[in-house]
Amino acid sequence: MAEILDGKAVSQHFKDQIKAEVEAMIALGKRAPHLVAILVGNDGGSQTYVAAKEKACHEVGFTGTVLRYPDTISQEELLKKVHEINEDSEIDGLIVQLPLPKHIDENAVTQAIKPEKDVDGFHDINMGKLAKGDTTGYTSATPLGITMLLKYYGIKTSGKHAVVIGRSNIVGRPMSILLSDSSETGNCTVTLCHSRTSNLKELCLQADIVVAAIGRPGFVKGDMIKPGAVVIDVGTTRLDNASKKAGWRLAGDVDFASASENASMITPVPGGVGPMTITGLMFNTLKSRKLR
Ligand code: GUN
Fold this sequence. Notes:
Layout: E1 3-4, H1 7-27, E2 34-40, H2 44-60, E3 63-69, H3 75-86, E4 93-96, H4 106-112, H5 124-132, H6 141-152, E5 161-165, H7 172-180, E6 189-193, H8 200-204, E7 209-212, E8 230-233, E9 237-240, E10 248-251, H9 256-262, E11 265-266, H10 273-291
Parallel strand pairs: 1-11, 2-3, 2-4, 5-6, 5-7, 7-8, 8-11
Antiparallel strand pairs: 9-10
């Protein structure tokens, strides 16, 4: 049976470190880091994620502000707000929770955020820096959180074959770059798989590390996992579950029961990558504050 990689506990460990740094800052008379999240509309998932980010801010001693707008807000109004925050010297990080309503161009909004405040790492400048191995930018929070998890558990990546399933700009592609970087959690040979990959099972069976980020619940089964592999599950699909109070449950991309029979280490859903994403965002916001 696989060892469970406890994202909740590890995120707490890093949050404690961040909190100690913030306390030291404040003791020196400096301002606490300030993260602003913009939330447009009433998407249930987005509301949950933003609430979790706000809670984490308070836990580590940051100022956390959530600006909520109705889904009728125009792109122009939203961009105006982004520009205002860009110019506010007391704000270190700005995230606009995605998805946005259809009448708003998500790319126009994410590119309007000043790269220096783009703690989500979605701006072209930060994506470009990531691609070049330039660590002065911001790395998307989920891949960053995964590298923090790998580091914490001392998982050796050098010379290993990593298979990343999913090519999103937020997770799959940046993850594939980080794992191939010349770094402590890099030096892997990386295969980036996606919906058009024809021999996915064959490739997965060659992987020492599998990162599943495709948004298809239970897609990666135990018979796709090489004995001893490390399995990282990024999936967070909400499935109806009438027996739960909230009426839904979170489902990962990995079939946990069968995969954990072959894997040496595996992240659960919930309590694996999710909390690490939030900690990655806190890490980026502290980094921005320190650079000001
Ligand atoms: N929607 C899904 N994941 C994310 C994220 O990491 N950041 C933002 N801003 N929106 C998201």
